[in-house]
Amino acid sequence: METVVSGIRSTGNLHLGNYFGAVRNFVKMQHENNCYFFIADYHSLTTHPKPDDIHGNIRQVLAEYLACGIDPEVSTVFIQSDVPEVTELYLLLNMNAYVGELERTTSFKEKIRKHPDNINAGLLTYPVLMAADIIIHKANKVPVGKDQEQNLEMTRRFARRFNTIYGVDYFPEPDAYNFGMELIKIPGLDGTGKMGKSEGNGVFLADRPEDIRKKVMKAVTDTGPTAPGQEVTEPIRNLFTIMKAVSSPDTLAHFTEKYATAEIRYGDLKKQLAEDIIRFTDPVRTRINAILNDDAYLARVVKDGAEKARASAAKTIREVREIIGYRSF
Ligand code: TYM
Predict the structure, then answer these.
(1) What percent of the chain has pLDDT above 70?
(2) How far apart are the first and last CA of the chain?
(3) Dihedral, 224, 226, 232, 236 alpha carbons, nearest 10
């Protein structure tokens, strides 16, 4: 049995990218492994220092997690800020993380481009907190999407460095995991780039069918193939990628063939895609709403999760303190 850790920021609702990149894989792993799934609400403060409604956002994301099939009876589901031990490990790891390597990460460079007015130290040390989240439970596998690959490299590096500096073989080096396959990147509907929480290019699990139809019908396309065998452009490839995730292989094959023979009508493709997304999200949305109405259940999940996560984290912190040389008098 391996230990699996994954998380998601509380800055927005879950979209198809979050689901297919991370949550679905976690759900598939939870019965065979020792699984921890959490809401990264400290991480949210790196870009939302003054969140509008941090509690409401956490509650929503938690309900969405559970609605996707994360089972708190078999997995440990918790809120990052309920486990303060992680902040101690973060502090300790920060002592061996170098500003140069943190400044060079792609996500930091991207964030400073997007938020030039708020380049805070939390943003710089984001990968250190993420490493702490993962290695505090001594995880081996981390189901995440393609965009987290570099953060996982940093996690391995910090784990390895800790072992080297203190001359121990303590932390495993965890891998970004997708059942031996390439990590997933679900594109957005805007023709370019990945689906994101705040890019305005996403379909959210909680979206209503009429909104999903509107969004998909407005998705960026091109003028269409003019002759058989033409290469697929990025916006169309993106729609096919989403289709591959939500539609049947027959549907995908049908539209791939229509493209290849230059007979495709993008309106038909979009209509089918929207209905397939709705078929997939409808039951999830119903469950999200039911769970949001059950305060007692949510409170119980969070309390049990915090207890289990803290027990695991506290054990690591005790051992780490011992390794570094902090002893009691
Ligand atoms: P976040 O909240 O941006 O995204 C949560 C998960 O969803 C995946 N994801 C995607 N996968 C495929 N296609 C997409 N378009 C797409 N968009 C998002 C992400 O890869 C991620 O797995 N830093 C993390 C949160 C975090 C974490 C951790 C994750 C904090 N500590 C420890 C794992 C382990 C983040 O911002 O994810």
Answers:
(1) 100
(2) 37
(3) 10
> CA 294, CA 292: separation in Å to the nearest integer?
5
Indicate the length of the chain as a whole number.
329
- Active-site residue, 28 included: no
Q: Is 111 a catalytic residue?
A: yes
State the chain's mean pLDDT as an integer. Answer: 97
Q: At what angle do helices 126-135 and 85-94 cross, to 10 degrees?
A: 120
225 alpha carbon to ligand 1 midpoint, in Å?
Answer: 35
**pLDDT tens digit string along 294-313?**
999 999 999 999 999 999 99
Contact criterion met (CB below 8 Å) for 203 and 212: yes
Whether residue 131 has pLDDT greater than 90: yes
Per-residue confidence (pLDDT) for residue 198, from 0 to 100: 82
The finding on whether 148 has its CB within 6 A of some atom of ligand 1 is: yes
Q: What is the dihedral of CA 248, 254, 258, 263, to 10 degrees?
A: -100
Any residues with CB less than 8 A from the CB of 300 and at least 6 apart, and which? Answer: none
Confidence bin at 115 (pLDDT 50/70/90): confident
pLDDT in tens, 28-76: 999 999 999 999 999 999 998 888 899 999 999 999 999 999 999 999 9
Domains of the chain (ranges plus CATH)? 3-184+294-324 (3.40.50.620), 209-289 (1.10.240.10)
Testing ligand 1's pocket by substitution, the residue of 148, 156, 192 carrying the most ligand atoms inside 8 A of its CB is 148
Say yes or no: CB of residue 313 within 6 Å of ligand 1: no
Q: Is 258 a catalytic residue?
A: no
